[in-house]
Amino acid sequence: MARKIDEEKIKRIKEATMLTIVENGIESTTIAMIAKEAKVSGGYLYRIYTGKQDLINELYFEKANSIYQELDFFLGFNQTNIEPFVHSFIRNRIVYSINEPIASKFYYQLLHNENYILPDELKEKSLKLIEKIKDIGIKSGEISTSISIAQLHYHIFLYAIDYIHFKRKNIFGLEESIQEDLAFITQSIMRILKE
After folding, report:
1. For the HTH tetR-type domain, which residue ranges apply (predicted)?
2. What total number of domains does the chain contain?
3. What separation in angstroms does the CA of 40 have from each of 29, 49, 178?
4. Percentage of the chain lying above the pLDDT 90 cut
5. Cα 61 to the chain's mean position, in Å?
């Protein structure tokens, strides 16, 4: 007889994974640490996941997939220019970093860890979205024909996330409004894409 999966426990495991990794780093985090934080037994965790890598891969897939779904949704509203789409996407990244700081920091760590790469399914989805964005941007004059797919991917997906993470550290002790950040990041990306 198959055992029932407790969705509440799965949610706690995922939240505990993100928190434990943000606090201790990916390499230092163990299944035992995650299980303790989630208040489940290590055995329960291993019944659901083959190990830490499997659990992290699932979280990474879920987040990356939700971002691609969001992008696809935004593209459905506007097929003539990309600035409103870029603005909305960045706004959502800022809001996400404020409302979900642990998840935002966790995703940032995975983006910058070479052990985590997109599965083929998401690579294909990402490539199609970036090609669609590039086509719209070239037609509207917002993207230079010399911008590569990799450059476009970096500037739309990673530039804003990197900037938000940098700002979160507040290394200079200066606070600026989110609206200023939103306008600055959007204008910077649009300027880079046009060169």
Report:
1. 7-67
2. 2
3. 16, 13, 38
4. 56
5. 10
Please provide the distance, in angstroms rounded to a whole number, between the alpha carbons at the two ends of the chain. 61
Q: Which helix (H) or strand (E) holds 29?
A: none
Is 55 within 8 Å of 49 (Cβ atoms)? yes
- Whole-model pTM? 0.85
Q: Say if residues 88 and 31 touch (Cβ distance below 8 Å).
A: no
**Residue 41 is part of which domain span?**
1-49
Please state, rounded to an integer, the average pLDDT across all residues of the chain.
Answer: 89
Distances (CA, A) of 18 to 10, 25, 45, 129, 137: 13, 10, 15, 27, 35
Do 39 and 101 fall into the same domain? no
Cα 25 vs. chain centroid, distance in angstroms? 17
Q: Let me know whether 43 and 61 are in one domain.
A: no
Q: Are residues 71 and 8 in the same domain?
A: no
CATH number at residue 7: 1.10.10.60
Are 27 and 119 members of one domain? no
The predicted model gives 158-171 an average pLDDT of 83
Residue 4 has pLDDT above 80, yes or no: no
User: What is the Cα 14 distance to its own chain's centre?
Assistant: 15
CATH of residue 79: 1.10.357
- Looking at the fold, whether 34 and 90 belong to one and the same domain comes out as no
